[in-house]
C-alpha cells in the first residue's frame, strides 16, 4: 500500500540537509508520496520547547559539532560545518520551496537538493534573491514569477499553515517525517521511516 510522508523541515537545518538525499531515496523506493512542508523554525521552537543554536548550552553546541562530523561521514556527503552565510533568514528560501512544490512538483526534488547544497556545500546566501534565481535555473525551472509567488500573502499563509500542521501532529524540529500521524524526528530515524514504509503496520500513538 502506497503511503504519504509529510516532510517538515527548513533549509537552514543541517540535519535536514544530511538526511535529504537518503530520505528521498527511501521514499521513492517505497513508492511513497512526499509532501514538502517547510516550517519557520523561529516560530516552531518557542511553541514546542526548542531553542535556537545561540541559546543552547555550550555542551550541546559542542556535541552538535561532533554529530555533524559523524553524520557527514556516515552519509558520505560534503558539509561545511560553519558556512559563510549561516545563519541566514530562511523565510524566502523556505517559501520559494513551497511555491516550487505547488507550481513545479516535478522539479521540487532537484530544487530542494540544490538549495540544500547551496547552503551547506557552496556557502551561498539563500536570503539573497539573485542566489535563489540561480538555483531555480540550475534546477531547470524557467519561471520568473516564482520569487513573487514566494513573497505572496498566499504562500506566507501556507508557511504558517505548515507550522500549525506541525504543532498539531507533534512535529517539533527539522527534519520531521510524519507517516499516518506518526512522527519520526531527525534524519537519524530514517531507518525506522524505511521500516514503516516497507510494512502496513498501523502508526504508533502516544495515546496508550
CATH architecture: 3-Layer(aba) Sandwich
> Which parts are unreliable, with pLDDT below 50 for 5 consecutive residues or more?
none
Strand and helix order = EHEHHHHHHHEEH
**Major sheet details:** 4 strands, mixed
Radius of gyration: 16 Å
The helix/strand class is: alpha+beta
- Choose one word for the global shape: globular
Strand segment tally = 4
CA distance, first residue to last residue: 25 Å
Query: What is the averaged pLDDT score?
Result: 96
Number of helices: 9
Give a quick set of tags describing it.
Glutaredoxin; four-stranded mixed sheet; 9 helices; 52% helix; globular
Give an overview of the whole structure.
Helix content is 52%, strand content 10%. It has 208 residues and is α+β, with helices and mostly antiparallel strands. Helix 1 links the parallel strand 1 and strand 2. The chain has one domain (4-197): Glutaredoxin, CATH 3.40.30.10. It has helices at residues 14-29, 41-48, 58-75, 91-103, 108-120, 129-138, 146-151, 153-169, 190-197; strands spanning 4-9, 33-38, 176-179, 182-185. Helix 1 runs antiparallel to helix 5 and helix 4 (91-103) runs antiparallel to helix 5. The chain has a 4-stranded mixed beta sheet. It contains 9 helices and 4 strands.
Amino acid at each position: 500500500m502506497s503511503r504519504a510522508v509529510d516532510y517538515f523541515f527548513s533549509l537552514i537545518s543541517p540535519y535536514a540537509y544530511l538526511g535529504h538525499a537518503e530520505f528521498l531515496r527511501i521514499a521513492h523506493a517505497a513508492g511513497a508520496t512526499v509532501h514538502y512542508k517547510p516550517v519557520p523554525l523561529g516560530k516552531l521552537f518557542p511553541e514546542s520547547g526548542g531553542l535556537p543554536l545561540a541559546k543552547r548550552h555550550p555542551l550541546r553546541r559542542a556535541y552538535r559539532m561532533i554529530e555533524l562530523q559523524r553524520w557527514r561521514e556516515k552519509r558520505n556527503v560534503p558539509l561545511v560545518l560553519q558556512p559563510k552565510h549561516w545563519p541566514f533568514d530562511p523565510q524566502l528560501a523556505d517559501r520559494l520551496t513551497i511555491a516550487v512544490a505547488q507550481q513545479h512538483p516535478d522539479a521540487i526534488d532537484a530544487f530542494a537538493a540544490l538549495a540544500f547544497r547551496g547552503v551547506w556545500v557552496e556557502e551561498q546566501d539563500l536570503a539573497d534573491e539573485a542566489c535563489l534565481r540561480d538555483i531555480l535555473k540550475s534546477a531547470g525551472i524557467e519561471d520568473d514569477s516564482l520569487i513573487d509567488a514566494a513573497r505572496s500573502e498566499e504562500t506566507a499563509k501556507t508557511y504558517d499553515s505548515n507550522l500549525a500542521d506541525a504543532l498539531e501532529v507533534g512535529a517539533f524540529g527539522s527534519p520531521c517525517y510524519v507517516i499516518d500521524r506518526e512522527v519520526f524526528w531527525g534524519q537519524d530515524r530514517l531507518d525506522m521511516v524505511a521500516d514503516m514504509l516497507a510494512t502496513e503496520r498501523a502508526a504508533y500513538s502516544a495515546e496508550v
